[in-house]
Amino acid sequence: MTTLRLGTAVLALCLITSCGEAAPEPPADPIATGQAPSYYPGDYPRLIEASEQEGGTLTIYSNTDQENWAPIFRDFQKKYPWVTKIAANNLDSDEVFQRVLSEQATGNSPADLIVSNAAQAWADFAARPGTLMAYASPEKDKLPDFAELLPNVYAMSIDPMSIAYNTSLLPEKPTGLKSLAAILAKDPAQYQSKITTRDVSGAFGFTVSHAFAAARPESWTSLQSVLPLARPETSSGTQLEKITSGEYVAGFFVSAAPAYPAVAKSGGLLEISFIDDGTVALPRGIGLAAKAPHPATSKLFVDFVLSQEGQAAVAEGGLTSYREGIAAEGGRHTYQELVTSVGEANIILAKYAKVPDDEVKSFTDKWNGLLGR
Asked: For this UniProt entry, which residues form the secretion signal (predicted)?
């Protein structure tokens, strides 16, 4: 590998600017219909032919919003036009795996692909026998070393966490957790229960919070000031809605993936900033279910989202692409753009590794003990 410095059917994506007008769309990317890149193995056309015989259907269990999927499905169906039906649900981070495990136990799961950014849940799922199909993507050598998160699990995107805040309610722009703590310290009573963070009892919340604290142990000083004013939420979408409505004035460890379109639609009321004392970047994993009903089409899809064509579509949908060569323009966001923004040393790449149970308990007890609730 190279190393970096460090629903169903086609969906329509509409991005709205703060003045309510349609945002400029990025230029359409050329898609080589039915053609594999020249560096793919010589027998790859057989995989394409096998996909044509699978009925044109694909089912994805994920925690990814439909607007994120829209350009990915559009371009995948341009490339392989016989795939006419793509069903992708939007479950909670942990529920993705719970449902697949429950269905696999009965021997009757419709899931072809699993997509989630719940690193702890992925590590547990992948360690279980018979859950994932072995597949080595021909795109692997074109990607950074961190692209393969676990055996047979690849990063579809690398999405940064942010501080989101209501510009009409917070007098200053927070640039990091230390900065936020300093703002709140000026009038703690005013901000009691007005800050939100992710619930560490869930895999997503635990992963990003633990990754930050482990990489920046000195941050506990700031956390001891901020957490007593905070309430936990289980999704970034809920956090963003409540910050925009004024129920919260700010939230930290809010995923940028749903935040980008929310900011664009807020008319300047909602803004985000990356955390200058350490921005957690969370990979969104994709893997093939062990008994995928449409294995050839599933493999084509994995290869596509990792390819140059697919990563451009990933970025267009609001997720953060990480393959070199994708331009951060027209509303697209890239890992390389994040490196430029905060500096490579300030990026904390969350790992897909199982944290021992005693460490999980120690961390969550400490975190929850500080929360205002």
From this structure: 1-22
Q: What is the pLDDT of residues 78-114, one digit of tens each?
A: 999 999 999 998 887 778 898 999 998 888 889 999 9
CATH number of 159-281+346-370: 3.40.190.10
State pTM to two decimals: 0.86
Per-residue tokens: 162: 């942010």
DSSP 78-125: HHSTT--EEEE----TTHHHHHHHHHHHHT----SEEEE--HHHHHHH
Domains of the chain by residue range: 44-158+283-344, 159-281+346-370
292: its two tokens: 């995928």
Burial class (CB within 10 angstroms; exposed 0-12, middle 13-18, buried 19+) of 309: buried
Structure letter (DSSP) for residue 310: H
Question: CA-CA distances (angstroms) from residue 173 to 179, 184, 212, 265, 275?
Answer: 8, 12, 21, 19, 11
Distance, in Å, from the CA atom of 291 to the CA atom of 293, rounded to the nearest integer, reads 6
pLDDT tens-digit profile of 228-263? Answer: 999 999 888 899 999 999 999 999 999 998 899 899
CA distances from 176 to 179, 181, 280 (A): 5, 9, 12
Backbone CA torsion sign across 154, 317, 211, 115: negative
> Regarding the domain with residue range 44-158+283-344, which homologous superfamily does it belong to in the CATH classification?
Periplasmic binding protein-like II (3.40.190.10)
Residue closest to 26 by CA, chosen among 350, 313, 262:
313
For residues 262 and 268, the answer to whether their CB atoms sit within 8 Å is no
Residue 41 half-sphere exposure, CB side, CA atoms within 13 Å?
11
Q: What does the block give as tokens for 147?
A: 């692209």
